[in-house]
Specification:
Length: 174
């Protein structure tokens, strides 16, 4: 399930000095209980060792690029995970759950931080960090939009939240 980008030497004809890029994909089996119960996945960004987070039923599991599971990382709750997003600068995974909880955990940290104040009892539809990693937006099924400030460690603190008409399931930063 991993991919690598390798520049080809010499560039491509008719493209000036730009090097052409190729992708190489590897097919690695993940030891999932039931692949049909996977609700969402998220790749970590901007690091030497990429991680893949997989929400399988009521559990979030973390895998290295080669498919090796980090068993100490697993998060389990009584409800299903509905959204996953990696902080773009830190090794911190944000997970949204059916009961409105947002959890934050890193692969090297044994602790999990949880917030249930912004999205009370409505399942999380979307979690998105801005490219700099300084802000995070969360949305839920009741139309509540949460705006969060993030620190250098990827931890969130609520700035504000408001209700929109309808439920938003996508967030785009321009």
């Amino acid at each position: 399930f991993g991919s690598s980008v390798i520049p080809r030497a010499g560039g491509a004809p008719g493209r000036g000095d730009r090097a052409a890029m190729s992708s190489i994909y590897f097919d690695n089996h993940l030891p999932l209980s039931d692949a049909g119960s996977v609700r969402c996945v998220a790749w970590s960004k901007g690091e030497d060792t990429p991680f893949l987070a997989v929400a399988e039923g009521t559990m979030v599991r973390l895998f290295r690029e080669e498919g090796e599971e980090l068993k100490d990382f697993a998060q389990t709750r009584p409800v299903a995970c509905t959204s996953l997003a990696w902080h773009p600068q830190s090794k911190v995974l944000a997970a949204g759950w059916e009961d409105g909880a947002i959890t934050l955990q890193g692969p090297e940290s044994g602790s999990t931080r949880e917030d249930r104040e912004v999205h009370r009892d409505a399942h999380i539809l979307c979690i998105a960090f801005n490219p700099q990693g300084s802000r995070c937006i969360t949305t839920d099924a009741n139309g509540v939009v949460g705006v969060w400030k993030t620190d250098q460690k990827g931890m969130l603190s609520s700035m504000c939240h408001y209700k929109k008409a309808g439920a938003l399931n996508k967030v785009i930063f321009r």
